[in-house]
User: What shape does this take?
Amino acid sequence: MTSSATYSSDGLRHDVADPATWSVRICAGRCDTCIFRPGNLMRLEPGRVADLIAQAIAEEGHVVCHSTLGTSAPAICAGFEAHQRGSAASLALRLARAGVLQIVRVPVSRRVKP
Assistant: This one.
């Protein structure tokens, strides 16, 4: 594991692991506007969620909960953790299931976002 933080193109921190403690943050549940809930609660472009999932699977990555983006503790989306193909493909989630990484459950925001 590396200790460098990673950032998206808009400058938001999106790493979910703490290399000092060998832990990975995962949301304790789905937020009210989770992209994995029925409907389009985040008003995303058609196909955007499928694209996020496909990219995460292709990279052995994960989807970061939008409620935790830009915070000091970004976390893997609980909806993605529950996604059968996503969960199986994610390196972080596989390492957590294997006991290599400790799971830290992060409380989710109940604030409704537009």
Remarks:
- Confidence is low (pLDDT under 50) at residues 1-5.
- The radius of gyration is 13 Å.
- Helices lie at 48-58, 78-82, 84-89, 91-97.
- The CA atoms of residues 65 and 77 lie 4 Å apart.
